[in-house]
């Protein structure tokens, strides 16, 4: 049986954990004289040696204590037990030091430090204080990145779940799943299942312009990869609203826009309803709407992202206009010709999930007869950045075979 794991990102190689090493020079008797050796090294040592010594308070182990001091020695005090070093509680801190640290925002920190406490990052910088006893990971010459997010994955949480099933995916997670371990070992700490296509023309095994309907459907699951435990695995069970919107689909566009108009009316009626409740009006009436309308209301409220696939310039134009007309935040997947119209797309509230190095033989890319810039460009992401647009990248091949492992 061939098990398939579908990933969005190619993870950067991560450094293995190294044992902490103490680089301080060893203390040698010849370099650090103590006791009698101190006396011998000072002028007048013979005279000093004849002076009466003042008993130390409490004494050292093996030395006689002051007369009349009846306190028990430290090792004999009640409750005081000598514990070997290996039995002492381990420090909750781990410090990754000396590497090139890539921040979520901000410049790369050369020879930076990442301090972790109980598996949570608590500080990042060049002058981070590392508590005594912390485990040190030497990352000199290596790159340290945040955990990668797979915006399109499949199978990392369980063997045969369905994101559209009635049961919550969080209840189906297999914490000992080998696929999850493979994701973690690749630096992928978060996965989104079933809400965004896994590559060109791919959505849950389907093809065409992508999944969803003109009115939109709510699909997918977002979770943390946590091998061996299900604690905190669920981030969002209902990841996004997936819908279709294409230049040559007049009926579909009309249905989408009609649903959005109802969602706008719903939000207005909801505001009035809440105001009436606050005023304790007896005739306060709650708004009504079907599942599609309420889902779009969640998008407008910022609770749920809306995802649509658009590659051709004409489709991107339609999506940008939809975003402008309804002040709607949208996530656009594919975006093959986005580089040709960055300034136009910047007028909408759009962000992008891009595919690198697209070559689709079923698409008329790079046709000079169209008379306008068209097709795919290696500079797609760069030109979107210049227009002030946000983007991320998913891999063309979103699967990894486990033959010979499982």
Report on the structure:
It is a single chain. The chain is of the alpha/beta class. It is 20% helix and 21% strand. It has eight helices and 15 strands. The strands form three sheets. The chain has an eight-stranded mixed sheet with strand order 7-8-9-10-11-12-13-14. Strands 2, 3, 4, 5 and 6 form a five-stranded mixed sheet that branches. A hairpin with a 2-residue loop joins strand 3 and strand 4 (120-125). The longest helix is centred in the middle third of the chain and has 29 residues, at 250-278. The chain is globular, with a radius of gyration of 32 Å. The model is unreliable at 1-69, 71-81 and 198-210 (pLDDT under 50).
In terms of topology, how is this protein built?
Blueprint: E1 4-5, H1 36-41, H2 45-49, E2 93-101, E3 109-117, E4 120-125, E5 135-138, E6 143-144, E7 148-153, H3 178-185, E8 188-193, E9 217-224, E10 234-242, H4 250-278, H5 291-300, E11 306-310, H6 313-326, E12 329-334, H7 342-345, E13 349-354, H8 380-386, E14 390-393, E15 400-401
Parallel strand pairs: 2-5, 2-6, 7-8, 10-11, 11-12, 12-13, 13-14
Antiparallel strand pairs: 1-15, 2-3, 3-4, 8-9, 9-10
